[in-house]
Amino acid sequence: MKHSFVCLGFPKCATTTLDSILRQHPQIKLPCHKETLFFEREDLYRRGISWYESRYYGHSKSESFDKIYGEINPRNIGNGNCEKNVIKTFGEEVKLIYIIRNPVDALFSWFRNLTESATLYERCKDNVITENSFDDYVNSFLYSQKREDFRYRMGFAQYKYGCHLATALKYVPIENVYVVLFEDYINVCIPYTFWVECCNNSSIYIDKEVILKDKCTMLCFEKSDIQLGAGGHYGVGFSMSCRNNSQICVGKYLNWTMGGGIYCLNNSRIVIGDKFYVGKDSIITCRRQSSLIIGDDCSVQWFFICASEYEGTVVIKDRFMASYNVSIFNNDTHPIFDVEKAKQINRDRKIIISEHVWAGIKSTILSGAEIGQSCIIGANSVITKKFPNNCTLGGIPARILNKNMTWDVREEDISNVDQKYNCLTEEEEESVNV
Predict the structure, then answer these.
(1) Hey, is 113 helix, strand or coil?
(2) How far is 219 from 90, CA to CA, in rounded Å?
(3) Cis (ω within 30 of 0) for the bond into 397?
(4) How do residues 28-73 score in pLDDT, each as one tens digit?
(5) Helix (H) or strand (E) holding 17
(6) What 3-state DSSP class applies to 272?
(7) Is the distance from CB of 357 to CB of 297 less than 8 angstroms?
(8) Residue 35: what are its φ and ψ, rounded to 5°?
């Protein structure tokens, strides 16, 4: 496998958009996931070219003759060995592409991204973002002179374009180094387009400061309604469809990274609270006279699926957090009938997830599940029944592993955790009162 180009880019310079556009080209082959970090991290580079090739799923020798191989990775910048490793691996003929942007504009984009994402902001504010304004945020970098300091590495240091280009020219002929200005790239090369269509006595209301990125689609037909709260961000390739007397209501500051979508059909209703972070390629769907409610301050990672069908209900209360590949289904996706009674038996099923629940990677929550407050669901677990508050759950089907447990997104003084999250069940409260 021989690379034709490596785009080293810079953070917040539209490298993600370039990656999504090039993936659509039939003759260009990119890694399965953006940012392999192969050239930046020495521990990964030591794994060798065979490990790197495994990032390109479907690679074969026959493909190498008719595909243009490349990578787009802004995180490579900042490592002095990055360009050296690229040339050592692919030779001097490889093209190095840099996308550069006004450093102040780039930092403002970075600052806005951190502060608008409720989950990321809460996760980082104790040791990264505590400033109330962009000016304070920039000034904080002036006091971070050590190279190992996070603020230094994620601040102006990464935008020292001259230093990075000088490093590249040590290893690559000048004719193989390309520099692209962000402003020219955005205004000329990338057509930002989205499609919104509304008809048949339907309505779409989009509040102020909502961002719809490239290839977003929004359809509302047949006496349906869509409402998008202020400050929402809908990433590249996001889609939303509301049809046949249905409603979608999204709160403020939703951050949907890219891909996937929200679908509400056939007399159904979806309500999403404020500050909801959604990883890429996630799906939320509600069909056939069902309802789906998600509270405030929730976050889910890549490939999250939540589906409500057949007059069913899914309720996810505030501060729910899900890892990668978490699935929530209150249905079997197809009707199941009792032949003797001539009746469908998988209708009107519920799932209730209480406040402050953490679902581990690849966990599944099925119809009949009622999960108490502050519970922790182990990886690969399958939840099918009712569980009390403050439990650790695991297994297939899940059972209680530990009681009197809780969790938080960051370290807490244990004396405060009990008061903040420990919730008694109704039976326990009655016993205490007695």
Answers:
(1) helix
(2) 46
(3) yes
(4) 888 887 778 888 788 888 888 888 888 876 544 444 456 788 888 7
(5) helix 15-22
(6) strand
(7) no
(8) 70, 75
Q: SS3 for 345?
A: coil
Can you tell me which residue has the tokens 């909502």? 210
- Give the C-alpha separation, 284 to 168, whole Å: 45
User: Nearest to residue 264, comparing CAs of 292, 238, 229?
Assistant: 292
Note whether 196 and 218 are within 8 A (CB). Answer: yes
**Any idea which residue has 């603020």 for tokens?**
151
Q: Which two tokens stand for residue 283?
A: 């799906």
Place of tokens 């490298």: 15
Which residues of 303-381 form beta strands (DSSP E)? 305-308, 313-316, 321-322, 327-329, 337-338, 343-344, 350-353, 358-359, 364-366, 370-371, 376-377
* Beta-strand relationship, 391-394 and 399-403: antiparallel
247-259 pLDDT, tens digit each = 999 999 999 998 9
- Give the DSSP H or E segment for 225: strand 225-228
CA distance 270 to 259: 19
